[in-house]
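Quick one: structure tokens for this chain, please?
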Amino acid sequence: MSSLDLLGEFGFEAAAIVLGPEGERARRGDVELIRPWRSVTKALTGFGAALALQDGRVDLEDAAGPPGATLRHLLSHASGYFYESANTLQAPGLRRHYSNFGIDEAARHVAQGLGRDFGDWIRERLAEPLGMAGLEWSGSPSVGAHGALTDLSLFAAELLRPTLLTERWYAELTRVQFPELVGIMPGFGKQTPNPFGLGLEVRGAKSPHWTGAGNSPATVGHFGMRGTAFWVDPDADLALVIGTSHDFCDAHREVMPRLADAVLAEHA
């Protein structure tokens, strides 16, 4: 039995790609279907910001967002912004408040530093070098990307074996920012702590969680509320990209951790 046989337990259309350091190891389902990535977009925005940081066009300590906040706060959901507005819940750096608005504001700040459109930057510096020819980037840098799982797998492979970022900036992208912060993980409740990198979620010791019990604390990735997700586990040297035809629901909460553990058992 293949670990990807578990895709049938979602109860609706689902597809996946398993990646190792040498490339694709397994695939199942319609991996060419264009899907809404929703919050998976944040991972690309974080990577695009890291490329701008590497080029010296912006700095993580730049003042950005609400008073007292920096680009680092915005990219790691620590600015205090509400989910979808410029209102703030509290001062920066006190709690992990997951915020689409904060990620969009981070992209606006980076675009100002670049002197160009952020979406064009993503296409030129990330999508084109990786061959993500089908990536559709429109609207919000927090939720606006669409694409096939084959394109998302190219991004996951880059996180598994980085070629576009130096070791310093790859480490900054994927390490936990403000590691002590507590917060609500959308769909999974309060996490103490609730670690995030720059646009990337870091697994840490979160429980419950959408990755597997066997995933290492250093696992990074993201899921989107329209049913697309990916994780990259540097300790297992493995990545998984998933797409479904259903908004995130109880089936995802139940099947995705088991799928992750099955993939790790078969391929790690």
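The domain at 3-267 is CATH 3.40.710.10 (Beta-lactamase).
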